[in-house]
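Listing S7. Sequence submitted for prediction.
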Amino acid sequence: MFRRTFFIFFIFVINTYANILQDAIDSSPSGSTLKLSAGIYKGNITIKKPINIVGKEDGVIIEGEGRGNIITIKSSHVKLKNLNITNSGSRLDIMDSAVFINNAKYVDIDNCKIKNSLYGIFLDNVNNSVIQNNTVSSNGEKIGFRGDALRLWFSHNNTIKNNKFIKSRDIVLMRSNDNNISKNYMQECRYAIFTQYSKNITLIDNILKNNAVGIFLEASNDINISSNSIKGDHGAQTSLGIILKAASNIHVEKNIVAECNQALYIDNSPKIRDTKNWILDNKIIFSTRGLNFKNYSVKNVIKRNELFGNMDNIMSDSRIGLTNQNEIESNYWDDYEGFDINKDNIGDTPYKKHLYLDALSFKNHKLGFFYGSAALSMLDFLLKIAPFVQPVLLVEDRKPIFKISH
């Protein structure tokens, strides 16, 4: 396709030029490229044809009117690059966005900075597109007043990579399949990554820091979570690393999950019959609870993980969530009390985790208020020495790793 390139040069003093960018888009042939010089361009524009809009130097600002979307894209084969996009509307009910893309393919948003906007980038029925090298932050200080940094709705086969999402609400994939999310940095959000009714998603090499929840998979299947660094919010008692809720065929491998209230929270997962979840080769460290099971969570394969520095390496919130129907083997537990006489780096006796005081909390949930206190810690210790309630076997690892080799 023959591509024409148009250069737009203006000197901006104080105010913006009304509709000049929209007029340039409307008058340009399909497939052309608009190269913008530094300055402030009026936003609330709509793109209905294949076109590239590129900032050819620093300081290209597309400024919204404080209402609605700053840029609306209703065409395939559109590219936005090197732009500063700011000042969307603030209505949560209509999801005012910096960039709203609807019913399109092959859209590329590259190296743009989005700030002072409610929602960042919203993909509505958008496929085969790339969101890369962008920085997105919201316009609200409190999480409840922020919009999502990125939202995918019925959007498939997209690539999200090398972005920074900071102080927004969520990165959301709703009924969106076959998407790749890699090498992103996400900080001080609510759900750094949240999927619902989605499948075939890859989450790899992302850094998630100080979010209320790192990764939350709800009713989602066939997802690979690997080589991510997830660190919780020191000040948030509800900070969660990875949540699997009714999630099936999930591979959680080679991640570092640290400094969370609960590192891995497994709730009614896997959900689909005859499926498993695979939790392999992770470091689950320095958290209040390392692995926490809730409801009927069985058929999880948990192997070769390192659990250390946690207040409790493994716990369950309900009797039906006890873990003895999961396949748990060859993990390192820093509270293992056995020996390795033959030096094969496998404990000579199984690692067993019993519930003593915690067994009482099943009957009286008010005890949870005192969890971690000195008084309950002493009582738990005394119960181990002279139990006056029958302890509950929570888990048995028949081949515990004796020490970490690296």
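Caption to Listing S7: primary sequence and predicted structure tokens for the chain studied. The longest strand covers residues 97-105. Helices lie at 20-27, 357-361, 374-385.
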